[in-house]
């Protein structure tokens, strides 16, 4: 008696799909992972960097303990004076991850007093040099990074530096798909313009511990 061979096809399809998934995962690992949203991308990079810091500090297991960290905004790799709302959101999400992991994250934008503005509300955070509470940041490490905009993705390279030596304690790379939402956060970068922040003078210094 001959049995129809169609019953074997689902198994073959499953096997083929599994192979494709493995190949896709290997390709992503080789070129830097692709994460669909900024919060997911930040969490993925935070975990990667944390594991490297734990290894560098010879701590038993992640997350690292006793590390004070200042977080700065990623900049355009082709113009280090250029940033955008997407990069600022990435910095916020990275600060969120490190705080939740137990790092001592310093808020370098804290003003010297609460600013009350009619119609705008009560504000404490500022980027105005004359309103900053401190102009020098005391931290053991500082997070910095760059981004690159391609036709399909925005690729972030984030690193944590030891302030006393400028050594890289940990570094991670991730790509965020260039969706319509992401494009709206790119601002001038999406239209190919640059130099929007040229000429900005440093307002916060880093005091080495």
UniProtKB/TrEMBL annotation:
| Keywords for the protein's UniProt record, in alphabetical order | Signal
Q: Which residues form the signal peptide?
A: 1-30
The chain positions of domain FlgO read: 51-179
Give the highest taxon in the source lineage: Bacteria
Note whether Signal occurs among the keywords.
yes
The protein here is known as: FlgO domain-containing protein
What's the source species for this entry? Answer: uncultured delta proteobacterium
